[in-house]
Each structure stands twice: as C-alpha cells, then as structure tokens.
Amino acid sequence: MGIEVRPADVFDDVAAVIGPKKPTSNVCFCLSYRLLSSKENVSLKEPARSARVRELCAQDPPPGVLAYDGDEPVGWAAVHPRADTSFAKNRRIPHVDELDVWSVWCFRVRPGHRKQGLVHHLLTGAVEFARERGAPAIEGYPVDNRGEKVDLTMAYVGTRAVFEAAGFEKASDTQSVLSGHPRVIMRLDLS
Questions:
Q1: Mean pLDDT across the stretch 96-108?
Q2: How far apart are CA 151 and CA 50, in angstroms?
Q3: Residue 173: other Cβ atoms inside 10 A
Q4: Which distant-in-sequence residues (6+ apart) come within 8 Å of 98 by Cβ?
Q5: Which of 29, 43, 160, 168 is the most buried (most CB within 10 A)?
Q6: InterPro entries recorded for this chain (predicted)?
Q7: Among candidate residues 99, 165, 91, 179, the one with its CA nearest the CA of residue 127
Q8: Exposed e or buried b for every residue in 5-23, given b needs 16+ CB within 10 A?
C-alpha cells in the first residue's frame, strides 16, 4: 500500500502519533505553537491536554495532517493559518509581509517508519490541505543545517532541503536557532 495523507480529524490517530506515552505527561502534543499562553501550555496535563487536542481535531480546519500506511497512522504535520498560531506574534520569526499565510511547523514520524521519506509526503499533504482551504501561501520555519546532522529532538521543524524539494523558496532569515542551526522562513505561493 502507498502512503496517504489525510486531515488530522480522528483524535485516536493523532494521539497514536504525537500523544504522550505516560498519563501524567505534559509533553507537547503539538500544542506549543498554538495560540495558548505559555502558562496554559505548561499547566495542561493529562487528561486535559488530550481533551484540548480532541477539541482541535473536531474543528474546521483540524490541527494538521496525518500520513497513513494503509490504516495505520505513521506521521504527523501541524499546519494551520499563521494568525491562529504563536508565529503570529513571534519576534524571532518575522512576518515577510501582511499576506494571510498558513504555517507548517512540526513533523513527527513514528519509530519503525523513519528514513522512508514520510516527511516529504507530509509536507506535500500539508500544502494540499492548505491549498484546498484557500490559503494564498504556506510557509515553514525549518533549520538551515547545510547538510549537517540535526539532533533528532530538534528535527521536528524540518530542514531547508526538505522544503526546497517541495518547491518552497527562502523568503527570509530569522533570529531563531535550534540545535545550533539557524532557522529560515521558506514559503510557497499557492495562488
């Protein structure tokens, strides 16, 4: 079977890919860049954290896309209008212009499915997801690692090379650095 990317509107599938392993955890669950206050993000613990993500999965648009291998959810990409994320006010990642762009900012591939090109599928799926919902452009904020190895815990933002392979172009530098690598704004015009 091939990889299929679909909207992340099934909570159990989202939880299978990015949910916490321990019931007392307050791991990201991809809420860190949502429009939550820092205090709320830190204070949300299970089961409230899962409940918040369940609410997001029921909204239109849902919080991102999932990659499926058959019926098994194997990957995640967070994608949403930038205005509804912390990137709307992020001082380290500037706005290129006033266009109402969408952002794609987090990738996660389940162990056992890595190194199979799923991030490329997820980015393509995120682009189509945004395009189908009328986004004029989509941007990401990957590291510009220039081919150097990226710490796995910081690879969630993607790499410049992955975005370039999907047709994105560098729109701007940022003041953000992850794992010693500068982040750049990569943008794809969808008009």
A1: 96
A2: 27
A3: 13
A4: none
A5: 168
A6: Acyl_CoA_acyltransferase, GNAT_dom
A7: 165
A8: bebbbebebbbebbbbeee
